Amino acid sequence: MSFRTIIEPFTIKSVEPIRMTTKDERNRALIKAQYNLFKIPSRMVLIDLLTDSGTGAMSSEQWAAIMRGDESYAGSTSFERLESTVRELFGFSHIIPTHQGRAAERILFSTTCKKGDIIPNNTHFDTTRGNIEFLGAEAVDLVIPEGLEPRNPHPFKGNMDILKLKNLIKKRGKDNIPLCLLTITNNSGGGQPVSMQNIRDVRAVLDPHNIPLYLDAARFAENAYFIKLREKGYEEVSVKEIIHEMMSFADGCTVSAKKDGLVNIGGFLCTNNDLLAQKKKDLLILTEGFPTYGGLAGRDIEAMEVGLREVMNEDYLKYRLTETQYLGEHLAEMGYHTIQPPGGHAIYIDAKATLEHISPLNYPGQALAVELYKTGGIRSCEIGSVMFGKVEPKTKREEPAAMELLRLALPRRTHTQSHIDYVLEVAKEVLDRKKEIKGLKITKQTTFLRHFTASFEPLLS
To answer: DSSP class of residue 342?
Structure first.
């Protein structure tokens, strides 16, 4: 049996030039940015793998849809089309548009949580955790043990640990848990999927206690395609049907459409609770906009509606996962320790194992990110103790994160295979001299989401 190369299922109509920087220029940019890649100007980046959020390319159909955007303040026909598509795909009663996912999170938690509450999740991502902790609530991660073992090949490492969930409810009390979250796919844990059975099991645990289940569904289509590929009984089920079944177990969801909505800006919040929906819309009006635009232009709503339909194309999803797998397998072959199996939207390098000479509190993930940028202009994102380390307020003592990862997030429909091959060449050069890489120390930080703005200095030894 012969196998053909999985090609990009699109052709290119528009291009954006890349500025070819020198190593000296990149060194100066790093010093000016105080070794925080979020502060590097995009014009100084050759291949930007910092995030897959809002960084992808839109299709010709999406650009065409922009021209029919209804910019009416209230009663927009663009919202009517979005509402119809989301309701058909997800099945929820109320669809509330927001300018992006973190706005949906803020509205959800502001209307459901209070100080002292507990929010369980498989693994909270940065803005989710930040919004919860800002309200004085506690974000608790309950991923299965395999999800914390980088080289464990478990097919659904994003699953929530059912026993831990039961014990949490028993120990802390159902009245202190206003809702449970499940992130699909599990971004902080390596872009790993959650199985349909696990979603079903989580729901079964929550039902006797009347605890609502919400999905953090930014990458809903990628998770659905993983279920189709890996979960018995779903081989012949369409992605659209799988998405609808996933959502059927939930009371609502938050979505950053900057991921599987295939747009540069946009998101939404869904719920089946009529009373809660009204509270959410009231807060939306106060802080985002009227419920038929939610802080978005009508043209952006139109592009989002088209993207939600396009993302279900299985040729696209096959290409998407294959592109990520190609990068991951080649990195592993050259000697990088990576999260296995490869995730959907990104490859996660186990920086703790790759740079074993750098201690967690000298931030091996950030050190590796700095070196990849310095060597080849590749921007990436640390997901380790910079992002998730905990500083005890009184003693100022820092506890490292569970894992020290470097994420290479692939924007959708943006890079060709030659771009990925260039990333691999730079990665090989960095790996060959990994012993020369030094750790970093933080010189300035904020209380919440410090990784966005923190300042660093390289250690001398």
So the answer is: -
215 and 119 assigned to the same domain: yes
DSSP SS3 for 410: coil
Distance CA 273, CA 251 (A): 8
Where in the sequence numbering do the catalytic residues fall?
73, 125-126, 216, 218, 259, 451
Which of 281, 310, 339 delimits the end of a domain? Answer: 310
Over the chain (461 residues), what is each successive 10-residue block's mean pLDDT?
A: 74 93 96 96 96 95 97 96 97 96 94 96 91 94 94 95 98 96 90 97 98 97 97 97 98 96 97 95 94 96 98 95 95 94 93 95 96 97 89 81 93 95 97 95 86 91 74
The CATH number that applies at residue 383 is 3.90.1150.10
Q: What is the pTM of this model?
A: 0.92
Q: How far apart are CA 165 and CA 211, in angstroms?
A: 12
Q: Quick one: 203 and 74 in the same domain?
A: yes
**Residues paired with residue 256 on neighbouring β-strands, in sequence order:** 267
What is the tally of structural domains in the chain?
2
Q: pLDDT, tens digit, for every residue of 265-312?
A: 999 999 999 999 999 999 999 999 999 999 999 999 999 999 999 999
Query: Do 42 and 122 have their domain in common?
Result: no
Q: Are residues 278 and 256 in the same domain?
A: yes
Cα 63 to Cα 65: distance, rounded to the nearest angstrom: 5
Provide the domain limits for residue 360. 23-52+313-458
Contact 271, 92 (CB under 8 A): yes
For 199, counting Cβ atoms within 10 Å of its Cβ (0-12 exposed, 13-18 middle, 19+ buried), the class is buried
